[in-house]
Every structure is written in C-alpha cells, then in structure tokens.
Specification:
single chain, 5-stranded mixed β-sheet, 136 residues, alpha/beta, 5 helices, Nucleotidyltransferase, domain 5
Length: 136
C-alpha cells in the first residue's frame, strides 16, 4: 500500500499530515510556507509512495464554500498539473482548527506553544486525515 497525504491549505502556511504505508496511523508531517507547497509535495512523492492527496474543504455552516475556496481551487489546478498521477479528494474540514486548538490544551501545551499557528495547521491536517481514515 501507499501513503495518504492530507493538506490543510492556508494562504500563508499549509499543514501536512501523512499515513504510514498501511494507512492505519495519521501523523503530522510538517507545516510548509504555501509558496513552497508544490515543490515540497513534488519532492516528497519522489521519495515516498503516495496514492492519494486529501485536501481540506472549508465550508460555511450553511454548507456553502468558504472565501478561501478560490485559493484552494487555484492550488488544486497547479497540483494536478504538476503531479497528475496522484488522485486528489476533498474532505470537509469544518471545525478542525478549533478541535486542533482544544487538542493542544488537552495535551498540556502552554499558552506560548498554543500560539504556534504552524502547529495548529499541522494538527488540523492530521485531523482531516484521521477523519478520512475513520470513514473508510
């Protein structure tokens, strides 16, 4: 089997999480400057066997697309052009940032550590991936 890689896209930073090769465990991988996201993913898939990109789909409470969807669509087009061999799926990411923050509190991180937005993005990507694994 191959890994699944989850992306919590942001206009400044993007959180990334990945499964093990058996697709059992979701782990935070890193947070990348969004300008470097496509080159990072391109290099990663050259080193690791990835079969699926999961990209968070932010929605409003009424199920309409969020404002950031325009940026995500542009990213998806670039990603598909650069790495057409890997399937891309979207996953509802409502509340992942709030859950990530609550997870940080529950794990005992201090206030300064909880202000680390890069860590929140990485945890959010992990939550997106974990929800997908649960739904399989």
């Amino acid at each position: 089997m191959a890994r699944i890689l989850a992306i919590d896209f942001g206009t400044k930073r993007t959180g990334i999480a990945v499964t093990d090769e058996l697709q059992i465990i979701a782990s935070g991988l890193t947070t990348v400057d969004t300008k470097e996201l496509i080159p990072f993913l391109d290099e990663y898939v050259k080193k690791e066997n990835v079969e699926l990109f999961l990209v968070g789909e932010p929605k409003q409470m009424d199920n309409s697309a969020s404002e950031s969807e325009v940026h995500i669509q542009a990213f998806l087009e670039k990603l598909h052009k650069k790495i057409p061999s890997i399937l891309i799926k979207r996953v509802d990411e409502r509340f992942t940032s709030k859950i990530a923050f609550q997870t940080m509190i529950a794990s005992g991180l201090n206030k300064k550590q909880r202000k680390n937005k890069a860590l929140v993005d990485e945890i959010s990507a992990t939550l997106i991936l974990q929800s997908y694994l649960y739904s399989k």
